[in-house]
């Protein structure tokens, strides 16, 4: 990358904010951008998305294909956030980039509440008015959307997506890559399996297996998204 462009993009000076590149230029990318601005620790310098075929610079923000990140990875002041709603795609991009966890930003909107003993991984977003209570464990690249409630001792594994206005009661486990639709309530102690999608407005009263689509009140498995392995 041209040194003049690099200087213009990053504006790196002593005491300046950390620089943030958002991966994904759709609606969620814009939400993360605004959350980062309110968070105050990061300055958004650009968006990477493969809908762009070249780098464009406008008003000190660049838009570029994902391959442009290779021009930035040597700059320790630059951090990244994968703002893609689909957890499987987030996982694929994470593998493609091969960045270590500390290069990913965790963004907490100032109106959110996160208890002091909550464990937050890398690349996590906690969006406006969300609440995470005591002893919850939130792994890497989890998105907790607006006004959601994550009660005590919840465990959310990597690449989980929690949609707006969702309530997870105490000691709920949401396994890797699962998606919980808007307005869903999951009662205490339930496990939602890996890669499963829970439809919006559901009431989940019992464990839901991996790799399926479930919805309703109470939620029931409607179909499996991958062939189940036979029990031997």
From TrEMBL:
An annotated Gene Ontology molecular function: transferase activity
Domain annotation PglD N-terminal: ranges: 19-97
Domain of life the protein comes from: Bacteria
Keyword annotations of the record: Repeat, Transferase
Record SUPFAM superfamilies: Trimeric LpxA-like enzymes (SSF51161)
Residue positions binding substrate: 85
Name of the protein: Acetyltransferase
């Amino acid at each position: 990358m041209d040194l003049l462009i690099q200087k213009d993009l990053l504006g790196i000076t002593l005491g300046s904010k950390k620089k943030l590149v958002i991966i994904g230029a759709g609606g969620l990318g814009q939400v993360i951008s605004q959350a980062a601005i309110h968070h105050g620790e990061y300055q958004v310098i650009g968006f990477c998305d493969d809908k762009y075929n070249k780098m464009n610079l406008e008003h000190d923000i660049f838009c570029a294909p994902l391959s442009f990140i290779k021009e930035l990875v040597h700059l320790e002041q630059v951090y990244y956030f994968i703002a893609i709603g689909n957890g499987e795609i987030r996982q694929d991009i994470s593998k493609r980039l091969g960045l270590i966890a500390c290069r990913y930003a965790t963004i907490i909107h100032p109106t959110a509440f996160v208890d002091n003993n909550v464990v937050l991984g890398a690349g996590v977003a906690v969006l406006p008015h969300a609440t995470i209570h005591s002893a919850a464990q939130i792994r890497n690249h989890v998105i907790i959307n607006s006004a959601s409630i994550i009660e005590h001792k919840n465990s959310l594994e990597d690449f989980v997506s929690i949609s707006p206005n969702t309530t997870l009661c105490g000691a709920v486990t949401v396994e890797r890559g699962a998606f919980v639709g808007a307005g869903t309530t999951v009662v205490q102690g339930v496990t939602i399996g890996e890669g499963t999608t829970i439809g919006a407005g559901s009431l989940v009263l019992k464990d839901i297996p991996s790799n399926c689509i479930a919805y309703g009140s109470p939620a029931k498995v409607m179909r499996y998204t991958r062939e189940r392995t036979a029990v031997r």
